[in-house]
UniProtKB/TrEMBL annotation:
Keywords: ATP-binding, Nucleotide-binding, Transport. This is ABC-2 type transport system ATP-binding protein. It comes from the Bacteria. The keyword Disulfide bond does not apply. Belongs to the ABC transporter superfamily.
Amino acid sequence: MIEVKNLKKYYGKNRGIENIDFQIKKGEVYGLIGPNGAGKTTTLRILIGLLKQDEGNIFFDKYELPSDNKEIKQKLGYLPGEVNFYGEMKIYDFLQFNKNFYINYDEKYEKYLLETLNIDTKKKFKELSLGNKKKIGILQSVVHNPDFLILDEPTNGLDPILQQKLYEIIELQRQKGSTILFSSHILSEVEKICDRVGIVKEGNLIKEFEIDELKDYSIKEIYLSNLTFINDLNKYNHKRIKDNDYLFKIKNKNLKIFFGILSKCSFDDIKIDRPKLEDIFIEYYK
Ligand SMILES: Nc1ncnc2c1ncn2[C@@H]1O[C@H](COP(=O)(O)OP(=O)(O)OP(=O)(O)O)[C@@H](O)[C@H]1O
């Protein structure tokens, strides 16, 4: 369990975060989403002990930050937005070095990750491409089977195959019982791997959603071409695209009545789009 209560952090006079509050259960994947500058990275950096909060409490199970930093570090995995280790070190040497930090270092899992991620251990870190650096970061963040896994924009710079592998590793960690927190802009990935999301805006956590609830909450976009528009349709959110072509945005709960009205109209064609998460989030970002 990760519990964050009324977290506040200022950089001098600049607002980092104002009030961030959430709880993540064991085995749950929680996504922090928000526009640039909202305060996601600040929140994650406080949680990994890199920054100290001005106010608020953080608990990792029975341990509290910052006082139990040492105990928490053993149980924590972190993948930063930009992975940077010692440039001159060969990956093989880096893995030996990293092993020394963790009581629960899992050599079998290391082997699995090296194979799955196709990592060349003979290269120096500075010789790797961005995506290959990230692979080392992914391995390093999970190889000690952390109880808590924190990922900052994890798929940034990854090709689709590697993204898929990362999703599989996150799923594996979830099955092992890790509590997982990550930040993201990519709503399709949030939808795919999160159980819950928190929306951060201007330093505040303004809304939480269960992913399933979010889907119910969504609207359908309905395009109708050559529609004979009748008055009853006026009360629904609509836009005239051109001539007699219309786009309606209908909440799921109103669909039945809407189609009832539509049955009295004539039209040439209908297209119904899946709800777009972007539209929902943009409402909150505004
Ligand atoms: N070292 C710093 N000194 C001063 N202000 C900072 C510093 N780091 C972050 N900030 C400010 O804190 C606020 C939150 O930034 P943060 O990087 O946490 O946002 P974010 O949601 O992670 O955005 P992004 O997705 O762009 O990384 C921003 O207004 C930013 O300008």
